[in-house]
Specification:
- The structure holds 2 protein chains of 2 kinds.
- Chain A is mainly α.
- Chain A is rod-shaped and about 70 Å long.
- The two termini of chain A are about 45 Å apart.
- In chain B, about 35% of the residues are buried.
- The longest helix of chain B has 9 residues.
- Chain B has 1 helix and 20 strands.
- By secondary structure, chain B is mainly beta.
- The chains are: A mainly alpha, B mainly beta.
- At the A-B interface, strand 3 and helix 1 of A face strand 15 and strand 17 of B.
Chain lengths: ~120, ~260
């Protein structure tokens, strides 16, 4: 039996099972005994670019509570419609447009780079 | 003066003439779970060969030397035939009270209590409330094992199968249906709630990926990550063969997730 660390507190066993760091869990006790016997678990995977990007998106959204996933999509649609109807319209006249656009640009950039959103 | 209850050596007689005797199904005196071996969530069959510590029928696991057994059911009673190694059950200390207990069963196997000597049906042991205790059977046949307070075995206590399943699911459970919520094109979240809260945070495994059906697609699940188990549920991230849609709901089908909090 071999074990691998994760980015959280759980331990991954080589059969794919996720073992919680609960001293009452028999599998965790076995893991502790395995460590005590001098064994070393495989280090945790480094987060992929996509995972990092998703974490960044979540952080941005959490830091900017006035926007969220649904609003972001709606905002995209609205601005596209306005641009199609009147390409000369000055979007900066919309209250809060600049702030929302700035956050949206951050999110879009991260998402496109991570491949979780089309360019 | 009316007499409501009459106590005698065999039990209690009620005013309406009904008798609850000690040989009837008092039900809860058996501290062992799955004594009928009729709960088999892991679906073992044929010749069951278990590595040390591996589980066969619910709550029953191989001893230090592994275990090989077959089983057959007649009239609702399953008899195990242990051909090699030992088969044991660890009784959770929370289900034990301090004092002398007696272990009884039907069959040719011998058994021991904790590290005591092996003996025939009727051996006794001393339990300490709150401390786990191990019952272990050697080679031979065994059915209707029972571990109860006292020094004299009573008739095997039958419990409703639904109750017995619930008792076993405190330690192990397999879930095969649930709901998935899309998080992004690359990830979706599977959230599950155990039917019975677990003894401790369980070890969780996606035994079979299955598929997600909904939002106009059927998406074969290709993997699970960030699997986290709690006493009352579990969650994990899923990747799929095709893109997920954020916030869309999918029905999870054909898969299996297990939660293991065995002793």
């Amino acid at each position: 039996m071999k074990y691998k660390l994760t980015s959280g507190t759980s331990i991954l066993r080589d059969d794919g099972a996720s073992i919680p760091a609960d001293p009452a869990n028999a599998d965790y006790q076995a893991y502790q005994a395995w460590i005590a016997a001098g064994n070393t678990p495989t280090p945790a995977d480094q987060p992929t670019a996509q995972q990092t990007a998703l974490a960044q998106i979540v952080a941005i959204e959490q830091a900017n509570p006035f926007t969220h996933r649904h609003f972001r999509d709606a905002f995209d649609t609205i601005t596209q419609v306005i641009a199609a109807v009147n390409p000369q319209y000055d979007m900066s006249k919309i209250p809060g447009f600049a702030q929302v656009a700035a956050v949206e640009a951050q999110i879009k950039s991260v998402a496109i780079n991570a491949g979780v959103r089309a360019a | 003066m009316a007499v409501d209850l009459v106590l005698n050596n065999n039990g209690v007689q009620f005013a309406d003439g009904g008798v609850m005797s000690t040989t009837q199904q008092l039900g809860m005196q058996n501290r062992l779970h799955n004594g009928l071996f009729n709960i088999n969530q892991r679906a073992v069959s044929g010749t069951v060969t278990l590595a040390a510590g591996a589980y066969g029928h619910d709550r029953w696991k191989a001893g230090a030397g592994g275990c090989t057994y077959t089983f057959a059911t007649t009239a609702g009673v399953t008899t195990l035939t242990i051909s090699a190694g030992t088969l044991q059950q660890v009784i959770e200390g929370a289900n034990l009270e301090s004092g002398t207990h007696v272990l009884s069963w039907t069959g040719t196997a011998q058994a021991r209590i904790d590290s005591g000597a092996y003996g025939a049906s009727g051996i006794t042991g001393t339990s300490v409330g709150g401390t786990n205790q191990t019952i272990e059977f050697g080679t031979g046949t065994v059915s209707l094992p029972q571990y109860e307070v006292g020094t004299t075995p009573s008739k095997f206590a039958y419990r409703p199968i639904g109750l017995e399943l619930a008792l076993c699911q405190r330690y192990y459970e397999a879930i095969t249906t649930g709901w998935i919520i899309g998080y992004s094109a690359a990830l979706a979240n599977l959230n599950l709630q155990w039917r019975i809260p677990k003894r401790a945070s369980p070890t969780v495994a996606m035994a079979t990926n299955g598929s997600a059906v909904g939002n106009g697609i059927s998406n074969s699940i290709t993997g699970a990550s960030t699997i986290v188990g709690y006493v009352d549920g579990a969650y994990m991230d899923l990747s799929g063969g095709t893109a997920w849609t954020a916030a869309a709901a999918y029905s999870w089908r054909g898969g299996q997730v297990t939660g293991n909090a065995e002793l």
